[in-house]
Write a structure and sequence with these properties.
three-stranded antiparallel sheet, alpha+beta, Flotillin-like, Band_7, 476 residues, 8 helices, 12% strand, membrane, single chain, Tetrahydropterin Synthase, Chain A
């Protein structure tokens, strides 16, 4: 496989998987290296037409034809990844997306229809469509799909359940009956209107005659009223002129009295104003004196407070400085103690490390010595075995004699026998003549060997070497 440069179409994305890619790589163009696989996914929306058979809350079945325009959510990379995983799970020629969308739409439509009556579904087609749209969209989000458009057609009856046909006939009959009622009402309104117009004409004529007589009578009364009104206005004008003259005289008298009063008030006010001004000036003088005394007291108190504040500040600063120095000394002491503890810990760690390394080295050397000893013993045993011509029994007997095994066994048996305080028997051949005492002792020892070898055989199961005297066999 060679390296290739792939470029996607305007409505496509490249999905690259394989070597050097953790999960999936979405891109418009990229190099495809050996060990990688490139798949093209189309993001164009697709129209899905369904005829969903559902049942209302009254157990009335119906068919809901619907057309959904569904496609991947192209503005969200996570949704494209979900759609890419969905498409990669099946072959490119399968209808798994159509089956998936159809299953979701049918399931949600049936659940929603089961909670609504047929009248609610029929009258609220827009709301029913929106509910189906929302519930289907929630399920499609997990696959990275979005509904671009949803068109729910007119509801259709199921064969054998002609609910909508009967409902249409009912609507047609109601419309026909309403039309008949409207025609009858129109005829009635025409006849009643004709009679009403004739009566209104006669009423209007009589009304006009009555109004004419009333207007003529009113005209005559108004003429008389106008004459009386002119006479009355002349008398009223004369009375008004006389009243105006009397009022002018009264106002003149009142003004003269007011002017005299104002003159007297002005004199009193001028005297009082002088007294008020004097009191104000006296109060201002006293206020200034009080302010002066207050400022003096403030200055004295402020000076004293300033001195006390500076004294207290210096004392507080001295205490703070002493505490800071004490804290710094304590901190320095603790740092030095921690450094000393750290150095001691490091020294102890190094000492333990050296001790462990020394013990490890001693163990290694001891193991090497044991290995060398084992190798030397192996060489020694191989040499002895070669010297005996490969006779293992002869080599074993030699090693036991050389190692003093028989002597140890004899000594152990003697110690055991001594502890038991046995009765000893000395075997002889019964001939004590013809020899010295030394030879008698040797002969006695030699005679003791068969019972000794027999005891060794019974306790250990080992036979004496071939070059030594053998045990006598029992003769029946």
């Amino acid at each position: 496989m060679v390296m290739m440069y792939e470029v996607a179409e305007a409505s496509e994305y490249l999905v690259i998987t394989g070597g050097w890619i953790k999960d999936m790589k979405l891109t418009k163009k990229s190099w495809v290296f050996p060990g990688q696989r490139c798949t093209r996914i189309d993001l164009s929306p697709v129209n899905y037409t369904f005829e969903v058979q559902a049942m209302s809350a009254e157990k009335l079945p119906f068919i809901l034809p619907a057309v959904f325009t569904i496609g991947p959510r192209a503005d969200e990379p996570d949704s494209i990844l979900k759609y890419a995983k969905l498409m990669s799970s099946q072959s490119t020629t399968s209808n798994h997306v159509t089956d998936l969308v159809g299953g979701v739409i049918e399931g949600e439509t049936r659940v929603l229809a089961a909670s609504m009556t047929m009248e609610e579904i029929f009258k609220g087609t827009k709301e029913f469509k929106q509910e189906v749209f929302n519930k289907v969209q929630v399920e499609l989000n997990q696959f990275g799909l979005i509904i671009y458009n949803a068109n729910v057609k007119q509801l259709v009856d199921v064969r054998g359940h002609e609910y909508f046909s009967y409902l249409g006939q009912k609507v047609q009959m109601e419309a026909a009956n309403q039309a008949r009622i409207d025609v009858a009402e129109a005829k009635m309104k025409g006849e009643v209107g004709s009679k009403l117009r004739d009566g209104q004409t006669k009423q209007n004529a009589a009304k006009i005659d009555a109004e004419t007589k009333i207007i003529s009578t009113q005209r005559q009364g108004e003429g008389k009223k106008q004459e009386l009104k002119v006479e009355t206005e002349v008398k009223i004008y004369q009375n008004q002129q006389e009243a105006m003259a009397a009022e002018a005289n009264a106002q003149l008298a009142m003004k003269k009295a007011g002017w005299a009063k104002e003159a007297e008030v002005a004199q009193v006010e001028s005297k009082k104003a002088v007294a008020i001004r004097e009191a104000e000036l006296q109060r201002e003088v006293e206020r200034m004196n009080a302010l002066t005394t207050t400022e003096k007291l403030k200055a004295d108190l402020l000076t004293k407070a300033t001195v006390e504040f500076e004294t207290k500040s210096q004392e507080a600063n001295a205490v703070l400085y002493a505490k800071q120095k004490a804290a710094e000394a304590y901190l320095y002491e603790k740092q030095k103690e921690s450094e000393a503890i750290k150095a001691a810990a490091e020294a102890e760690l190094y000492q333990r490390k050296q001790k462990v390394e020394g013990e490890l080295y001693a163990k290694l050397k001891e193991a090497e010595g044991l290995t060398a000893l084992a190798e030397a013993q192996g060489t020694y045993i191989r040499s002895i075995l070669g010297a005996f011509g490969g006779n293992y029994s002869a080599m074993r007997d030699y090693l036991m004699i050389n190692g003093g095994v028989f002597q140890d066994l004899a000594k152990s048996n003697a110690e055991a026998v001594r502890g038991l305080q046995p009765k000893l028997s000395i075997w002889t051949n019964g001939d004590n003549s013809g020899g010295s005492d030394a030879m008698k002792e040797v002969g006695g020892i030699y005679k003791m060997l068969p019972p000794l070898f027999k005891t060794v055989q019974e306790q250990t199961g080992m036979l004496p070497p071939s070059w030594m005297p053998q045990l006598p066999t029992d003769q029946n």
